[in-house]
Write a structure and sequence with these properties.
single chain, alpha/beta, Immunoglobulin-like, Cytochrome Bc1 Complex, Chain D, domain 2, six-stranded mixed β-sheet, about 20% helix
Length: about 500
């Protein structure tokens, strides 16, 4: 006996509204509590979210881009299609790795829904994959965050639905055993549940997610690398990166903004093990939605993001320049890859940040012994010897340059070019003086046969300091060159 069409549509609608036994029961109970306030029943869904007014396919964006919010603040049915793809991609310059991905990228696409929405999730496992996969969304109130309902073998699609009951920024990840291995291979992303009233407007929004990779080979060892379970258990990653690979969000791939822009970063930590100490060098977060929740903290320098957690940070760009975004467990940033960049263009305001005004000699106990004081006497400073310039240059290099180009001069693959045996530096007629005087403004450069998107701020150093640094760099790590003199720098500056 067939079910009448009208009755079939009724049960279909009822199923779509109440899919998931625990959520369906919650909705029914909430609807029957006459006169009960929302706060009276913790975890219940308000009556005005029990019905949806329409449906649409979710806009999914790959990092660092963020889906647009919608103007309609009524609850809707949002249909999300995610495909799991196992594929080989670049982890670092010359380093390849087999990633397990949501949507073909690490992190997976960002999903944006609204508090009260009914989300219908379609998880497809590509037929060419070797492993079963599923999805655990931390925004789900239900067993396994959807993991039990979505376990999918290659060549199949699983479908389930859930109500987005709590606003906030949440991680999603694969939870198929061994869970840590699936996460460590790149299976994580973010889902944003905006509050019903929406979020304040900003000029720019970006999506960043940190993750660790445990390879058999050491950091920088080229070729195809395999996952190392022993390192993962010991929590000893070779790489800690933003958005899936070293240099993914630096140089020509840097985030872009202008002076005056209000910037919001949606930041996740896929883990699987380490806590992220998230920091933007040269910016202060005037708003932090700590751990991705709705509680706002103000004027924060560094915010902790646990493994499997998230945070929303906001700030206003007040000065131009290149701002490094790091995990402030700082060796991860400059030695393992946890580095992104925000390039801000526009006019400078010397009332906010002056840059270096002058550089004086310092002699303890003799406050008048400055470079300016000596020059005022009319006496010409004697030229330093090669040994003196090399020694002074070493100290200045460690303070100004080593964090990017590394103390050994090898740079960071794919991000900061090497200075060791650098054909780009050693072949310049100006001995590299122009680079330190004027910087490199997001220009493509080639160093030792490898391409980089050159981004280097102008260093506000004295002529003497520049001569010292270049004497050291041009005579270290296999480089060989005559001493760079102060008058060489002065001549180039005048030109």
């Amino acid at each position: 006996m067939k079910t009448p069409p009208t009755l079939a549509r009724f049960f279909s609608t009822l199923f779509s509204l109440f899919s998931g036994s625990s959520m369906g029961l919650t909705i029914l109970v909430a609807a029957s509590l006459s006169g009960c306030r929302q706060s009276d029943a913790i975890g219940s869904i308000p009556n005005d979210t029990a019905a949806v007014i329409g449906e649409y396919p979710a806009e999914l964006t790959h990092a660092p881009f963020v889906p647009a919010g919608r103007d309609n603040l009524q609850a809707e049915k949002v249909i999300v299609h995610l495909e799991v793809v196992e594929k080989v991609m670049n982890l670092a310059d010359g380093v390849k790795y087999t990633y397990w991905t949501f949507g073909g990228t690490v992190p997976g696409p960002m999903i944006r829904v609204q508090e009260g929405d009914l989300v219908e999730m379609h998880l497809s496992n590509n037929p060419n994959n070797k492993m079963p996969h599923n999805i655990d969304l931390h925004a789900v109130s239900g067993p396994g965050g959807g993991a039990e309902a979505s376990l999918t073998v290659p060549g199949h699609t699983s479908v389930f639905s859930f109500r987005a009951m709590n606003p906030g920024l949440y991680v999603y990840h694969c939870a198929t055993a061994p869970v840590g291995m699936h996460i460590a291979n790149g299976m994580y992303g973010l889902i944003l549940v905006t509050p019903k009233e929406g979020l304040p407007k900003v000029d720019k929004e970006f999506y960043l997610m940190q993750g660790e990779f445990y390879t058999k080979g050491k950091n920088g060892e080229t070729g195809m690398q395999e996952f190392d379970m022993d390192k993962a258990i010991k929590e000893q990653p070779e790489y800690v990166v933003f958005n899936g690979s070293v240099g993914s969000t630096t140089g020509g791939h840097s985030l872009q903004a202008r002076v005056g822009d209000r910037v919001r970063l949606y930041v996740g930590n896929g883990g699987p093990n380490l806590i992220c100490s998230f920091h933007v060098i040269g910016q202060i977060f005037d708003k932090v939605y700590q751990e991705g929740g709705t509680q706002v903290h103000q004027n924060i320098q560094t915010t902790l993001i646990p493994s499997g957690g998230a945070a929303i940070v906001e700030f206003t760009c007040r000065e131009p320049g290149t701002f490094n975004i790091v995990d402030h467990s700082i060796f991860r940033a400059f030695n393992q890859g946890a580095l992104a960049q925000l390039v801000v263009t526009g006019p400078a305001d010397k009332n906010i940040y002056s840059g270096k005004i002058k550089d004086e000699l310092y002699k303890p106990g003799d406050p008048d012994a400055s470079a300016d004081a000596e020059n005022e006497t009319g006496k010409e400073m004697p030229e330093l010897s090669f040994a003196e310039r090399f020694k002074n240059g070493n100290a200045l290099f460690q303070m100004n340059c080593a964090s990017c180009h590394q103390p050994n001069g090898l740079g960071v693959p794919g991000t900061f070019p090497p200075l060791a045996k650098s054909d780009f530096l050693m072949g310049r007629q100006d001995k590299g003086i122009g680079i330190l005087l004027h910087g490199i403004n997001n220009e493509p450069i080639s160093v030792n046969g490898k391409n980089f998107q050159g981004v280097m701020p102008r260093l506000t150093l004295s002529d003497d300091d520049i001569a010292n640094i270049l004497t050291f760099v041009r005579n270290s790590w296999g480089n060989k060159s005559p001493v760079v003199k102060e008058k060489d720098v002065k001549k180039t500056r005048e030109q």
